[in-house]
């Protein structure tokens, strides 16, 4: 059975005033099974090529916080205690910070976890040469 899902690409924007970014992950939400998951795979070399002065430790901390909120639970603070769909909306809200998300896109799939992997392949991972 196909279920609707929403997703956004997680971006690292090292210098907000320039508007340049590196795709670093995907967050996906599906009402079916109250599913919310984020997968982060930051290519630090690509980020450093964009901004050699970026504070990688700060970026790692911000991405870890994003992941913790997606995962939910006690360790993720007050936002992490919200329901999955509320956390998704909080994570994908428009902001002008070093960690941003793309606009939210929708689709239908039979398995949200498999779709999350596919979206990582399409939007984040460097394509393999043919």
SSE blueprint and pairings:
Elements: E1 3-12, E2 22-30, E3 35-40, H1 44-50, H2 56-71, H3 84-91, E4 99-101, E5 105-109, H4 112-123
Antiparallel strand pairs: 1-2, 1-4, 1-5, 2-3
Describe the structure.
The protein is an alpha+beta fold and about 130 residues long. The protein has one domain. About 35% of the residues lie in helices and about 25% in strands. Strands 1, 2, 3, 4 and 5 form a five-stranded antiparallel β-sheet that branches. The relative contact order is 0.26.
Net shape = globular
- Termini gap: 34 Å
The structural domain count equals 1
Q: How many beta strands in the DSSP annotation?
A: 5
Fraction of residues in β-strands: 25-35%
Average of per-residue pLDDT values: 94
Q: Would you identify the regions where 5 or more consecutive residues have pLDDT less than 50?
A: none
* N-to-C series of helices and strands: EEEHHHEEH
How many helix segments?
4
Radius of gyration: 15 Å
Broad structural category = alpha+beta
Main pleated sheet = 5 strands, antiparallel
Roughly how much helix do the residues carry, as a percent range?
25-40%
